[in-house]
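To: structure desk
From: M.T.
Subject: fold request, one chain
Message: Could you run this one when you get a chance? Sequence is below, nothing fancy, just the single chain.
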Amino acid sequence: MQFSLIFQAPHLAQADALILSMYEDEALHKSPAAADAALGGAIADLLSTGDFTGKASQVAVLYPRGALPARRLILVGLGKRESLTLDTLRRAAAVGVQKARELKAKSLASTLHGRGSALSAESCAQAYLEGAVLGNYQYHGQKSSAPSPELPETLTLVLPEDAQGDKEAVERGMNIGQVLGEATCLARTLVNLPPNLCTPQHLAETARQIAQQHGLSVQVLDRAEMEALKMGALLGVARGSAIPPQFIILEHQPERAAEGKTIVLIGKGITFDTGGYSIKPADSMVAMKNDMAGAAAVLGAMQAIAELKVPRHVVGLVPATFNMISGEAYLPSEVLTASNGKTIEVISTDAEGRLILADALVYAARYKPAAVVDIATLTGSIVVALGNAAAGLFTTNNELREALLAAAEATGERLWTMPMYSDYEKLIESKTADIKNSGGRHGGACIGAVFLKHFADYPAWAHIDMAGMADDLPNNPIYPSGASGYGVRLLTEYVRRAAQ
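Reply: Done. Structure tokens follow.
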């Protein structure tokens, strides 16, 4: 979809479909009022009958029949004016574009939802573009049929002539929103791919393409290089697969990077998780192609950070491997040695994500980072705790916690702070090694975070357990079925704010 901006009376825009937004239970404001006058009161009739109230994400379609230049008029509700948020705007943009696609509209014009509210014109434009791109995402996969046409082909934001002073801000917001939306869709496609296609090698090749297209440096460590670095935890997990592991390093080094310290982002890249010899039940294994959603989030965030030219040195690390069963696979009760020399008793081969992250966290220390954030589909326990409403945030650094929570609030990619009590340390004490990789079912997400803390030796570290947020998020139009791309916008916003 191609995006543009023009200044004219919105109801005079020519397109296959024109989108106008309205607040709930309010009289017609300027743009809908002008369209309503041209339509002889048709919008007022919808309101008077209660067929359209302006409730958030509500949609109605009218056919102007020549009374307006647009062939269709799509009304989208924004809810109560006092309850307006950026996420309301994203959802409104998504439902409007989805309705236009359903109607097979090629060209789309729209007012800028939320303009004139307490929200800035730039943030409204960013939210609109994010919602439009995310809501219009479709995954055709490997079907033998031809994919549906990519509709709408164009979307024009139409602002009134007296809004010319907002031009730069709106264009800036549109650019940011499009970059974030497209980077999130990259992550979605990676997670949606089947595991025979999205292998560790595919993640590495994607990283190389991102680097080439957006000016990042890239390095991919092979098994021999990991062995030289004594990454015994990662390599232990990788032993069961005939397809070799990859350790991906993406680096964003802008000209102004010397002004701030390094941020490292780490994403778990288990491209399929059988559970190993602690095998998962068949029903639980089906969705395990999404166990690299953290890796996808980091790759998408690194693309967005580079495109937006964020003035901060940022490193993205992705340890990538399968967790498979074979004659070479690691076993429960084995002891692995991580690259910092810490020994780990394997209680469960299905607690593999924390093992590959352990070596990545140790590797991150070479950058002397100001902050490290890892993101992973780590535990089923966090889904039990939070469902599909938020990811779990674990950190002992108050400043980093507040920065990530602020980014979550801005992006709508919610976080909920979880505890890291010292009590959990007792549960991973081992009789044969320094620590165990599992401490039982109860408090599993907290235990996983406490395990990771043993490998995070720097001033500020946070762990995000996004297991409930990777795919099939219900009741939100910006998340069509399948992968959500959660984490791309959250991580990018965190880094953008840290660079200010």
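Reply (cont.): The mean pLDDT is 96. Let me know if you need anything else for the meeting.
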